[in-house]
Amino acid sequence: MGAAVVLAAVCLTGCARGTSAGGAVPPATGPPGCPTALAGAEAAVHRAQRTDAAWDGPTRGPRAVPGKSLVYVAQTMTNPGVAGTATGVREAAEAIGWSVRVLDGQGTPAGIQAAFGQALALRPSGVVIGGFDPRLTSQQVAKAHADHVPLVGWHALDTPGPGRDPALFTNITTRVGDVARISADWIITHSRGHAGVVLFTDASIPFARTKSELIKKELATCSGVRLLAEENIPVSDTSSRTPQEVSALLARFGDGWTYSVAINDVYFADAAPALRAARRKGAGPPFAIGAGDGDPSAFQRVNGGQFQTATVPEALTEQGWQIVDEFNRAFAGAPASGYVAPVHIATSANSASVTSWDPRGYRAAYRRIWGT
């Protein structure tokens, strides 16, 4: 569908400025700041906001291999995406008849290395690398390979699919480029091409670093959008550092700061107190979109108009089920599925009654594959 057709379809449902992007509508700012970029962004945002798409993932694969055990090594369980995916792994493991243990790396290299070492000492059938760069744990990865323990990553590499250096059976994530582009496109659409943006990122995580670079690249396609600042705050430090940084940004940019985008929704939970103290309205600027991971608290902020307007959620529970399915393929000697979930945007307009992005069909599909 062409951009003009999509725009017309959206406007038939009653669009004012920014309405097609969902959430609160900013004040009119005159003509679009970048008509060509805006048209493409509006079309992409319209597609990403759909909630009625059928399951497009795997429908074939090996039957359940019995008696397996997994250990999920988490970067930090304070990262809602990591925690949400771990919950999905537990649910799927129960469905297939396996055991799971989750070990928390506490967000530090030493903690992650210790957790991974403990995981291998448990002699599991497989280990999940949950949200951290496996190069931080090169010794543990080498030992896992020596012990013939398959590794499946979640947000462990920049790209989905099997990894070569280091070798992972597969890495599960949406495509970082898709998430980055749609987050920036939402800002372009919602602002009608006029925005002053602050980007929050964690440069210690390669996946996050790549995502933030791609967000900046897409924002730059609109001449009316300015990147005011890029704040590098480790995910493990958001609660201690974000409030002070937000206060400083408000003092520095004032009303010129109209939009925020972050590589993880958790930044907006920690930004809220400082914005509230500055007497900013929860449904007003800076309008915020999280480029991952769409945990329940993010949905609550979005649906309640509390300092977050949109999120690009990972289907965390679905991805937990995919992790288990990928291990089952590894144990059966089959290749990885190759499935990559499409991006989705959640706003108050399309998610008012839910607290997660949970697409239809995957549980039944995986159970049919496994024969459970």
CATH architecture assignment of the largest domain: 3-Layer(aba) Sandwich
- The number of distinct β-strands equals 11
What count of helical segments does DSSP give? Answer: 12
Work out the oligomeric state of the chains in this entry. Answer: single chain
Question: SSE string, helix = H, strand = E?
Answer: HHEHEHEHEEEHEHEHEHEHEHH
State the domain count. 2
Assess the beta-strand content as a share of residues: 15-25%
Radius of gyration over alpha carbons?
21 Å
Report the mean per-residue pLDDT as an integer.
90
Main sheet summary: 6 strands, mixed
CATH superfamily of the largest domain: Response regulator
Cross-sheet strand order for the largest sheet: 2-1-3-4-6-5
Indicate the CATH class of the largest domain. Answer: Alpha Beta
Based on secondary structure, the structural category is alpha/beta
From the N-terminal CA to the C-terminal CA, the straight-line distance is 40 Å
Which descriptor suits the 3D outline? globular
Helix content: 40-55%
Low-confidence stretches: 1-29
Say what the CATH topology of the largest domain is: Rossmann fold
